[in-house]
Amino acid sequence: MMPDFIFFGSTPALGQMIPIYQRLERDTVGVLPLGAKEARGFGNVGIIEARQMEPGVLEVEGITGKLPGSLTLTEGKKVLKAVGRWILGPHFFSYLERTKGTGAEWDDTPALQMICEHKGAVGKILEGRGFDVGNPLGYQAAEAFLKARP
């Protein structure tokens, strides 16, 4: 779980993902469909290429790496965004070792990209609202969402 992603739904994100992981026995990522308005509050990483396997479940074919700035979409465009919830097998650590960078931050994105390329992963479209609170616009959107709740 990435601590800068918060999720609000009647069922927690992992609660929605665990049955998929158990049934398919494959690495599983939480996915949110985003339009232009929501996208501004997310970092520019983790856009997935996928095809539908069944309603709400996707075959993840690829995932984008980190780019500077916030995610920006033109009006009317939608993307599928991998969010800070993954269920991964122990093989993740060998992928993480193979993609270890030299910078101060140990970026998991290259390892996740390699897993999608080599082993494949599945995505669960999450029912609820998620926010990237590590992004100032995402933090503001989460705050506004919480204030508007009864």
Strand segment count: 7
Q: Rounded to an integer, what's the Rg over CA atoms?
A: 15 Å
For the report, how would you describe the main beta sheet? 5 strands, mixed
**Category by helix and strand content:** alpha+beta
Biggest sheet: strands side by side, in what order? 3-4-6-2-5
Mean pLDDT: 91
Give the N-to-C terminal Cα separation: 27 Å
Helical percentage? 25-40%
Strand content: 25-35%
What would you call the shape? globular
Count of alpha/pi helices = 5
Which runs of at least 5 residues are low in confidence (pLDDT < 50)? none
Element-by-element helix/strand order: EHEHEEEHHEEH
Overview of the molecule:
With 150 residues, this protein is of the alpha+beta class. Helix content is 31%, strand content 29%. It has helices spanning 13-24, 36-39, 92-98, 109-118, 136-148; strands at 5-8, 28-34, 48-54, 57-63, 79-87, 121-125, 129-132. It has a five-stranded mixed sheet with strand order 3-4-6-2-5. Strands 1-7 form a two-stranded antiparallel ribbon. A hairpin with a 2-residue loop joins strand 3 (48-54) and strand 4. Helix 3 crosses helix 4 (109-118). The mean pLDDT is 91.
Q: Helix and strand layout, with pairings?
A:
Elements lengths: L4 E4 L4 H12 L3 E7 L1 H4 L8 E7 L2 E7 L15 E9 L4 H7 L10 H10 L2 E5 L3 E4 L3 H13 L2
Parallel strand pairs: 2-6
Antiparallel strand pairs: 1-7, 2-5, 3-4, 4-6
Helix pairs in contact: 3-4
